[in-house]
Amino acid sequence: MSDQVASRFTPQNKTTHERLSTTTVGLVALSDFRKRRAEVLEQQEREAREAAFAGPSAPDRSQTNTPDHPGSDSAGASSGGPAKRKKQKKKQQHLGKKLLSFGDDDDEVDEEQTAGYEANNKNANGPLKPRESTQDDATPAHGDGDGKPGRFRANAAVGVVPRPLTKAALRKEADEREALRRDYLALQEAIKATEIAIPFVFYDGAHIPGGTVRLKKGDFVWVFLDRCRKVGVGRKNGEQGHPRRGWARAGVDDLMLVRDTVIIPHHYDFYYFVMNKNVGPAGRPLFDFSTQAAAASSMPDINTLEGAADDPKVTKVVDRRWYARNKHIYPASTWQEFDPERDFANEIRKDTGGNTFFFSK
Description:
The chain is of the alpha/beta class. The protein contains twelve helices and six strands. A six-stranded mixed β-sheet has the order 2-1-5-3-4-6. Strand 3 (255-259) and strand 4 form a beta hairpin. It starts with a helix and ends in a 24-residue tail after the last strand. Mean pLDDT is 74; it is low at 1-7, 58-79, 96-110, 112-117 and 120-147.
């Protein structure tokens, strides 16, 4: 009795792994293992085909202690008629087809998706035709209304592939870049050629009226100082020893430009400050000129130029030797040399001794 029970609950068909374990002993070559695996799969397929054609065998009633019933499947299989036997045979063939799926996981095809594909592509007057791609294929669907998984289109995540550039396209692109570069240089030269006016004073502890200098935005600071120096050559109203006459004897290297409280070095041009809008300690641009190019005209009136109405005391022309002697005395002690990396507007201003300045607003 125990043998009968054991035979009932012991699987009769061995798996592929178990058959390979019994036929393969020790280390074998990969080619031999593939050959034996193919033989095992072929044997399983042959046994499954034979089992499908033979049909499921009825259990022994003597072993299961189940009495024969006139209405059971075993009794009615022969008395059900040809239609019933045909239906049962078709069902057995269908079960046999399901057993014949021993391919790898990558080769499995969903039977329902294949049937749906054929149904969607069936033509009433001819054979099947390829299904046209729709917008739904571009985006993966999580599921249809009937619970079936959505379809995925190949390479759906790939964006627009750029076209390869030909030599003609590359030459055209290079010509466009060159044209843009020439236009920018022309605009830059036009801005540099725009004239401006800068009123100034000479400073040696007191504000000495200097005048107004006509310049271009592309001129350097040393050009401005040289023109300021030449203002003191003439005499005013025939006066002897006019205060400005002594400044004419100073060289350009002996003069320095102080804009507000910032010392501007000689090698900077005004175009640099116009385009970068550098801010001084007062919170306003050091040279507040526009970045637009004005139409060139023949010697316009200096009073009509941009900057002619500025406060002259903001721009000081100072003798460098006087500054060396008095740089520890206010207001020269608050002057600091221009540095493009410094934030003059937000830094805390201190004197040479490290004491913080307090200014009334």
